[in-house]
Amino acid sequence: MAITRTGSAKWQGGIKDGKGEVSTESGALSAQPYGFSMRFEGDKGTNPEELIGAAHAACFSMALSGQLEKAGVRNASIESSSAVTIEKEGDGFTITKAHLTTRISGDGDEAAIRQAAETAKTGCPVSKLLNAEVTMDLTVG
């Protein structure tokens, strides 16, 4: 079973003076502004790295809940964040790290909880995506 979800972006102008909008198929984000200053200079608005971080934290938390259930942990509560780091490399930029921070409580063995978190860290689909093949359909004009 394959499920496809869509995010979209519009951009107008140059890299530093341009402006963009990002939206999601569900409408959770609709024409949310983003731009160079929001990404690299700390101005208010969103950027690709924080969106990846939110997706990573959400995916990891869901995967972790499944692993905790398998481990017999009950009444689980999970709070997670993912800090995504972008660094200058050569003529461009590369996302070099995604650091998960999570707080878990629940009724169960601590060693089982720790193992569930390790399994979820490497097994959640967004963790896997961070090393995925990137493909593209391109239209010019």
TrEMBL record:
One of its GO terms (biological process) is response to oxidative stress. One of its GO terms (molecular function) is peroxidase activity. It comes from the Bacteria. SUPFAM superfamilies: OsmC-like. Residues 1-28 are annotated as: Disordered. This is Osmotically inducible protein OsmC. It comes from Paracoccus solventivorans.
